[in-house]
Amino acid sequence: MEKRKKWLVVMAAFLLLCSIVAAVIVIQLYLSTEVTLIVPHDIRADITSWGWFGGNLSMGFGDTAVSTQQVTFMSYGAKPLVLSASVDGLSVSPAWLNPHYYSLDWTAEDYEIQPLESLETNFTLTIDVPLVREYMIPRQIMKVDVTFDIIVSADYVLIYHNLTIETTPNGTTDPAPGVYPYRDGIGVTVTGIPDLGYAVDCWNLDGVNYTINPITVTMDADHSVIAYFKEVPTMVFVDPELVNVGVGETFTVAIKVANVENLYGVDVLFGWNASLLEYVSHTAKIPTDSYPDGILYAPGMMIMDAADPTAGTYQVAYACMDPAPSFNGSGIIFEITFNVIDIGSCPLDITASDLSHKVGVPILHEVIDGLFDNTS
Prior knowledge:
Blueprint: H1 2-31, E1 34-38, E2 49-52, E3 55-58, E4 64-71, E5 81-88, E6 104-108, E7 112-113, E8 124-128, E9 145-147, E10 160-167, E11 171-174, E12 178-183, E13 187-194, E14 198-205, E15 208-210, E16 215-218, E17 223-231, E18 235-239, E19 242-243, E20 250-263, E21 265-271, E22 277-284, E23 300-308, E24 313-320, E25 327-340, E26 345-356, E27 366-368, E28 370-373
Parallel strand pairs: 1-9, 10-17, 18-27, 19-28
Antiparallel strand pairs: 1-8, 2-3, 4-5, 5-6, 7-8, 10-12, 11-13, 13-16, 14-15, 14-17, 18-20, 20-25, 21-24, 21-26, 22-25, 23-24, 26-28
């Protein structure tokens, strides 16, 4: 009887031990199935060299380069994880030497890797880890997130596109005509700079015409812009051309000359409706020695600089004298300020306009009047 009792105790202990071992194995199998690899940045590579940790992927266009990196993690006796990434140079588009996104084929010996259809920022690469029972040690198998940083240089992917800038005769651009690489997504402003007597007619951007200047190009692909210039006449005009201001408010207009050559004297008479507009002040922007945005040079003589608020007129006349140089280009002849005293409409009228060369020869030019109208 005593012998039988001992045998039952041994059997019970054996069965208990087997149950514990089985439970441990089941728990270990459940806990040891995967390790997650987190890549925190966009994967990118340079087509000529790719620094990856201590290794280096050197490749020419059309080559396939391979590099490996061992990743350690806490596991239950599993093999070390060795990742291999291959880069196919033929997958690069467009095919020119700048950093680009590359397709990476990941492999790991004796491990199964969840396939990735595309690489995105902060993607997760999941790897199934096999249980290696012969190396069992008394600690729990763990699922571990491993930070895997393969950044080459900067914090963002550098994709570049070419902007081709061209121009027709009689002007240039800023930046100057040429081919420039710009980072993806940025806006590039190109300004047309016409020669004297010319103006920007239009821009041709990828086959479409635009009349604005400057023009801004968003670099989302390769682009081409062409600046077209046209000859423009000399003109005297009111700026702004149309004014709509309420009673009790003030406004200022500028009378300007544009695209003039060899200007040596000016005489302009300006008029308005004094029952609608009350004269406040004026500034003759002559000479440019005192007013950089004005016209003509010293020495010279201010022949007339007078306003008649009652009649609604203002006249300015100035003549240069030797050794003053001739004026070329565009500038403000004068500015004049009004207070609106009633509702109505009237021309801002350049009644007379005389421009002349040094020897008194008249300069032919166009005149463009302005309009005041606060009836709507």
